[in-house]
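Limitations
The structure tokens in this dataset are predictions for the assembled complex, not deposited experimental models. Users should treat interface geometry with appropriate caution, especially where small molecules or nucleic acid strands are included. An illustrative entry is reproduced here so readers can see what is and is not provided.
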Amino acid sequence: MSNGDRSFDLIVVGAGPAGIAAACSAAESGIHAAIVDNSAGPGGQIWRGESRTQNNREAASWYRRLTTSGVDILNATEVFDRRETGKISAESANNLCQLSYKKLIICTGARERFLPFPGWTLPNVIGAGGLQALVKSGLAVSGKKIVIAGSGPLLLAVAAYLTEHGADVRVIGEQAPWSRLARFSFSVVFQGRKVLQSFQLRRQLSGISYRAGCWVVEAEGNGRIESVTLRSGAKIWKEPCDYLACGFHLVPNTELAALLGCELRAGFVRVNDFQESSIAGIYCAGEPAGIGGLELSLVEGHIAGYAAAGQREKAQKYFGERRRLRRFADALQRTFALRNELSTLPGSDTIVCRCEDVSFGRLREYSSWRAAKLQTRCGMGPCQGRICGPAVEFLFGWKTESVRPPIFPVAAEMLAGGTGAERN
Amino acid sequence: MKPRSYDVAIIGAGIVGAACAEACASEGLRVGIVEADIIGGGATAAGMGHLVVMDDSEAQFSLTRYSQVLWQRLAAELPSDAEYESCGTIWVAADAGEMDAVRRKREYLQTRGVPAEVLDAKSLREAEPNLREGLAGGLLVPGDAVIYAPCAARFLIERAQSHGAQVHLPCVVTEIAADGLRLNDGSLIVARWIVNAAGTWSPELTAGIEVKKRKGHLVITDRYPGFVKHQLVELGYLKSAHSMTAESVAFNVQPRRTGQLLIGSSRQFEVGSKGIDANIMSRMLARAEEFLPGMGKLSTIRSWTGFRAATPDKLPLIGPLPARENLFLATGHEGLGITTSLATARLVADQLLQRASEIPAEPYLPARIPERVHV
Amino acid sequence: MSKTVSVAVNGTRVTVTEGTTALAAILMSGRPFVRRSVKGEPRGALCGMGVCFECRVTINGKRHSRSCMILCGQEMDIRTDE
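Predicted assembly:
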């Protein structure tokens, strides 16, 4: 047994809102639980760094609850394999940890969807959430000209955040048409808290041009981005900028669930009313079970945490709220659905697989993901299709396939289950 | 609608089927290739792509050497994505006993015209500084190479097509009929001769042939250019390849043109599942680490498995089935399918055209193995 | 006043506040890109959360480290592609 081996009744993988809610619910029910995350501290993406900076009241309150719940918090610990039933392998500071569990809750969140267009590989073309994460991690953007484009409510949240940090946000380009956004705003009226959020956002964003039916046609620059060509209806224009923050909504991180054998449906982890997957004892809450945002993640986290702790009645109390939030999430998905024009953006030379530099023109020659992958190496790089996979699914309708260990790259000795000394 | 009558119909567009298609089409035969999935999608996709001359038997030597020379001649015409690299092989000797084997190997190869050089401990360290201290030496075979097989298979198919061959893909064969191939939509592809090059699927179409699945694991690292410069194989590799026991591992590591390191090898019989077997993968990685101590720290990005088509006597099945004069086999290549694909194709073409081959064909004829079931 | 940390980016000293990632330190050092792609194109970070692998650099001798996931530590040695 290597010195990183630990045993728990319950392990929550992912310390974003869903994971935090799940861990708190379970621990407060008396379960010996751990929460594992590959970041330096809890919070996931939306509450990144909040455990340190305490800027967000809600996040700070949850963080307090987590640290007083008795949950073991394993930061900077990245799960990469499951060698035997009931035991996941993780890497922490170049050490191997084999973590045993009786129950598991997968709260691995989501990542941004990136769609290729000419120039998207230029330095300083970053995801919308990506740029926010960078600023939270120390990047200064005061006075920088930023164009935000793509799709989804995240664009607005990022615009507000960057503006707060002194950035000059030039324009927000949302690809969804006005007609769909207007219908969505109407439905927002029925979601109490969201109305308040949207009013706050509107105040913060006054002065910034928010254009619907608008998308990036090309990013230009020499060695880094210098300007963006945008299109909105018949209008095409160039916007000089220092950064382009560009993301198209979210894609669930289902790799761990797939590795464990959980059934996926339409790309999401299939769960029952108690957030339990197709494998008994393995639960899933938050984005991997369906993109739904912060509040739904918290609710699902509660349900999974209580259910895993055997507290089904407590879990059931959240079913109504989950139904309501799911409806809102579905409306969100419909509103921000990606338009077909986006699939016409990449040129023949536009890189689609960034790890292996495979262009759109090369991929177009193939009629299946597997053939394209074998012949061009698209998806064979370190990201293992996390970036190019959603792109080729949108561009060609290809479903990307099997997950193999390691889920994240690790040293060979980790994959082998420890150094020679540890194994003997 | 493609015409569906050929001189020869080849089942399988893996490296062996693709090579057969090219060899037959370039001789003017009308060729149809029928593939159930994608080009090079079976063992061709999973394997190491090592082009190696083997000396475990005359027959094995003959086939691998002949094929290796054919690859060397083809190298200049291969597209860059086939990544043909003449990196050579070093057979690594751990001790004095293995050094004796190295010297015998060199003798064997040299007398047959294959350049090979004995490396003492010092020269071995100079050739491969990342090998551990204390190894006795090795045998460098500079004519060996590595290749990225799926792209090579595609190239061979394209060459076949340039000579008029036609590819039916995806297209599932349900039955080898007397006059052609019955497909799962009920239709028939008519052919005078049929070549079963379906690898591990070949027994499904030709009952009774002794081809068993032999599972292997591989791991690939991120890019570390220069970490190793040659394909490195331990002398014990042959023990693993020849063993009839349930499972074994052997040190076999390959540098790719990308700078990534491909780490193998493992062998298991009787395993249907394609999933990673954590224990055997650990054993395989541990074995590799014994020879390359620094390898443990390299970042690995993916592992996968594949199935080799294995026969009882370690030699492939190349030639006509005794009971069926128009059905030929080109399968059962175990871990040497990529190496021997070109030679296999030549043998098949020679047999179809009824002319002598450059090497004796008898050791590979299916007739050598008594059939269990009449087809 | 928050604690500061001193790191070296390609040999140049950069002082950052505690909690800054290696990636942010690289960008603050003035280098416009982080990595060269396999075909030699200059690349910067994309996802900011450890899934795109565009931010890989060598940190304290360990190659292929995701700089967006690693907090600056005192005397950390960070090396990017040329």
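Some entries come with short summary sentences. For this one: The mean pLDDT of chain C is 95.
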